[in-house]
Amino acid sequence: MPAAKSGKRTATRSRAHGAADRGGESHADVFACFAQDSPGRLSPDRLLKVLNEAGILRDDPRIAETIAHLDRGRPAPPATGPLLLTAEEFTAATRHNRGIIERAACGELAVPDFPALVADLQRIHEEVRADRSGAVASYIPQLARVDPEQFAISVCTVDGQRFSIGDADVNFCLQSVSKTVGYCLTLEEHGPDTVHRHVGREPSGQGFNELTFNKAGLPHNPMINAGAIMSCALIQRGLDAADRFDFVAETWKRLAGGRSVGFNNSVYLSERNTADRNFALGYSMRERGAFPPGTDLLATLEFYIQCCSIEVDTRQMAVAAASLANAGVCPLTEDPVFSAQTVRHCLSLMSSCGMYDFSGEFAFTIGLPAKSGVSGALMLVVPQLMGIAIWSPRLDGHGNSVRGIEVCRRLVDCYNVHTYDLLTGTGAETGKRDPRLKRHQSATEGIVGLCFAASRGDVNEIRRLAACNIPLDAADYDGRTALHLAAAEGHRSLVEYLLAKGVDPRPVDRWGGTPLDDANRSGHRDLARLLAEVTGTPRRPAP
Ligand code: GLN
């Protein structure tokens, strides 16, 4: 068994290290954030509740020392009364886990408004549950017998914020989702040049188990059966079958945050007995000379079927997806499982080929790398933000989970996570929000940007902000608007632009001042004339 890579990588990809130590003084402020309800005292339950709301769960290894410290401090029965921490005790309890706890308290994690994401996922789960269309895979009895009503969604951000809803503790087989990790392992071991001498990287445009090859006689890509069989031929060829399987299972475990994955032996046995198509693919590839010399075809096919029979729940799959979103580093354990290059290649092929012959449509409407499996699993990656796992066994005609696809659709409807949403922005026009923003951040930044640009007379910047749906008559805390500032600074073309855009010509700031007052006060007579005309205000006599 090759030594698994382990140890902490201190590269920038590891965000948990990123928090600056705020020092003793402001750690007291962090304490105050948690202890809002009872100043000076903090109950551990309140601390855990606030962390939980930010998506940092009790079993998160990054707060393990804090949890152990708090558990040690709990009064043993029959003693009564809640344990309350002083600021000093809080500092002592959290001293090993300050980075993550401070970032959670300060709303500095990848999805700062995590409760809003949770509420959306709860709503989406509730709405999509009503959809009973599609049918479970029936090619083996073990899949045909699965309760089709089951439905789980789990999310994990690149900062390890987690939430799950539905049947998130029920195990299911990876099936084709295993193809992602299989491909990554080949890249890590051989590099892309060698790997792609044996497998292409074009979508096939055909079903996942179609008996078809590219012009060079190779599988079209690693995300369909033929390509995944090829990946299995390339992974750890020097090891015996048991160690090769352990190597893959261990990799899933590391990606998923350290909890062991399962194996469904009956699925494996059933698949092996009905794998005519996969055997046909294997023999065809051998006939074409696609495999590296010395490949044991039967062992390779068995290894492929074993990989499909690995079991996880959506909690684990979401963490694995988040590890991909986080460039290969598991957000919970900081374990650098794959290199960023490997993940980049894998996400590229998931984007173009991950959803069988629905991949083009998925890239168009959802615009994110994803991989599905016939068990009803769907793993979705939002690079640098989060991983999402959806499981619901009823499949559509392409073999994708019906509810899985619908959840993706709805997520992309509410959030600007489609890769090219960066061109169309957020706000009223698109109806999309940016999950990366703090609560109220987009509105606040818009107004600050507007006032700053107005004071400089920067019409282009104001146009850009208008395109991002920032209301041009928005006012800051003092009631000052872009028109006040443009008038005060004498920026005539901006004043004209704003008036032409229909902003209120007579907004009143907190001191009762209008843009006309600003123009007068600053001696911009021509602007004062213009504003007086527009507002129908009698002109002041010239001084
Ligand atoms: N075990 C299945 C097969 O090889 C996996 C395919 C899938 O999930 N699409 O046919």
TrEMBL record:
Positions contributing to substrate binding: S176, N225, E271, N278, Y304, Y356, V374
ANK repeats: from-to residues: 478-510
Keywords on record: Acetylation, ANK repeat, Hydrolase, Repeat
Keyword Hydrolase on entry: yes
Record's compositionally biased regions (Basic residues): 1-16
Keyword Protein biosynthesis assigned: no
Catalytic activity of the protein: L-glutamine + H2O = L-glutamate + NH4(+)
Protein name: Glutaminase
Cross-referenced InterPro entries: Ankyrin_rpt, Ankyrin_rpt-contain_sf, Beta-lactam/transpept-like, Glutaminase, Glutaminase_EF-hand
Upper taxonomic lineage: Bacteria, Bacillati, Actinomycetota, Actinomycetes, Kitasatosporales
Any Gene Ontology biological process: glutamate biosynthetic process
Oligomeric form and interacting partners: Homotetramer.
Entry GO MF terms: glutaminase activity
